[in-house]
Specification:
Distance between the termini: 25 Å
Strand content: 5-15%
Strand order of the largest sheet: 2-1-3-4
Radius of gyration: 19 Å
Mean pLDDT: 95
Shape: globular
Structural class: mainly alpha
Number of helices: 10
Amino acid sequence: MSGGGDGNSALGRKAFNRSPSHFTDRITADGRDGWPVAAGRYRLVASRACPWASRAVISRRLLGLEDALSLAVTDPVQDDRSWRFTLDPGDRDPVLGIRYLSEAYDRRETGYPGGVSVPAVVDVPSGKLVTNDYQQLTLDLATEWTALHRDGAPDLYPARHRDEIDAVMAEVYEDVNNGVYRAGFAPEQKKYEEACAGVFRRLELLAGRLAGQRYLVGDTITEADIRLFTTLVRFDAVYHGHFKCNRFKLAENPVLWAYARDLYQTPGFGDTVDFDHIKRHYYQVHTGINPTRIVPLGPDLAGWLTPHHREELGGRPFGDGTPPGPVPAAEEVAVAGRP
């Protein structure tokens, strides 16, 4: 998710097109792009407000990479230089020593003309950005970082299901993950209606798929579930109202609401979600569609903790593995962001 500067006030005035990731180097076991997997070398910069960054935060936790890949959490509200480290003492990231993520971009490519986006992985020794490729990053965490996974880490991208996972993720990306943005930032009625219709058409198809099975592909949590969850968990809080995706609320669809609650209550999912960051970012940063910057009080979050009964469908959340341990104290979500 990019942001900062005058681009936020322009949202909703021209057709929305998501820019491809510019820095697509990969961190791999064999280091073929010059970036070998190594414990402690890299830092994941994420915003808890951003669904694209939240994928990486969830994957990192499920796989037990907390000690191998450190985490920097940005302020959810950007200024004209985009993502900033004002949640840290002295307004600087304590590991990278920078005030803005853009500084790591500049060290990689001086004068880079594109947006500063999260998730971003930064090489700690050089302070340079390595990648902002949100589509590939989590797949690599699952497949290239295996030597550093915790004991009992789940297989989030099992080889035998990859074709099906890829197909489901492509549909979810086009119609749901990105579809809510195309609806929310649509500059004209027709484009809004097309995008919004696509969102709900796909949600209904997904509800049909999930009515008889606990997870999207196979009987365990996979990358596909992570990618759908990060949109669903934001749906009622921001997409329903702020982005006008209001044919129905998530809480009004029995299957999707139970599915989302099941994942939220699974270690590694809900314990990474900060509803306070989510709401403040969308409503205060997107001034093109919310010029007053008023953040709504609702919705009531208590429902996220209610029984979902999805275990009756069977399934093994972590396959042959185990749940992740407790959240590291330094990474716990503040009370204001939890139900």
